C-alpha cells in the first residue's frame, strides 16, 4: 500500500492530467512545443470546419497553415451521407485543401470493411446514396436506397407490402432522412438471421447544424435497430477503433505524433484517447466547456477518457498563435 501522502499526491497528479488545457493560455514556448509534438492532424468536419453548409470562419486558414508547416491533414468524418468525392467538393467550396486520399468517411470505411472481410452477398442499406455509391466503387452489391414510406397500416404492411431479398447478407445503418417503419421491419427481419452482418456507420446522437433545432443523428437509427433486433451493430466511425486500424493500415501514422481535433467528446475525443493521439476540442460544435468541466470532476474512468488534452473556443483562434 502506498503511504497516505504518496497516495494523495498520485490522485492529485492523475486529477491534474484530467484537466483540459486552454490552448490560448499556453506561453509562446509551450505552444511551440505543442505544435512540434505532432506531424499528423486528423480533423473532424461538422462542428470543426463547418456547420451544415456554412464555413466556420478562420478554420480554413488554420488547416492551410498546418499543411504549410508540413503537417499531414486527414479529414475524418462520421457523416455517412456523402461520398469522398462529395466531401472533396465541399472542402474545396469552403476553402479546405483536400483530395480523395485524405478523406476518411464512414460511407467509404464501411465499403473498406466489407471488402476486408471479402463480403460477397447483397447489402440492405438504411441510409443514403453516399453509402451505396461507395459500395458501388468497391464492387459490393446492394439494394436501392430512398423513400420507403408507410402506405397504409401495420396489418396491411405485414400482409402484403414487405418484400425481402434472399441474397441479403448484411444490413448497414447510416444517416437516413427517409428512415421509416417499413425499413425497420425489413432490416430487423434480415437481422433475424444470426449470420447476417449488422453494421452501424456511427453512433452520433444528434447532428450539429446552423439551425436552432435538434436534429437526430445516425446513432438514433442504429440504436432503434439494436433495440428491435436485440443485437449490437459493428460500429465503423469514431470512437470505434476500426477507423484507427484503417488509418494505420492505409497511411503511415504514428499515434504518438498525431493530433485529433473534434467538437464532440463522446466520439472525437474518446476516439483520440483510445488511439493514443493528442486531443484538441473546439467549442464550435456539440460539446460545451461546461460539459468538459463536469467530465473533469468525474471520478468515473470512462468519463476521464472523454476529457480532451486541450481546448480552444474556435479553431481559427489558433491562427494568431501559429503565424
Ligand atoms: Mg463533429
TrEMBL record:
A GO CC annotation recorded here is: cytoplasm
- Provide the GO MF annotations for this entry: metal ion binding; phosphatase activity
What the entry lists under SUPFAM superfamilies is as follows: HAD-like
Question: Is the Metal-binding keyword given for this protein?
Answer: yes
**Protein keywords:** Hydrolase, Magnesium, Metal-binding
What residues form the catalytic site here? 44, 46
Q: Name one Pfam family in it.
A: Hydrolase_like
Q: What is its cofactor?
A: Mg(2+)
Q: Where does substrate bind?
A: 238
Query: Which residues hold Mg(2+)?
Result: 44, 46, 263
Provide the cofactor note recorded for this chain's UniProt entry: Divalent metal ions. Mg(2+) is the most effective.
Could you tell me which NCBIfam families the record lists for this protein? HAD-SF-IIA, PGP_euk
Q: What family does the database annotate?
A: Belongs to the HAD-like hydrolase superfamily.
Q: What is this protein called?
A: Glycerol-3-phosphate phosphatase
Q: Which organism is it from?
A: Cryptotermes secundus
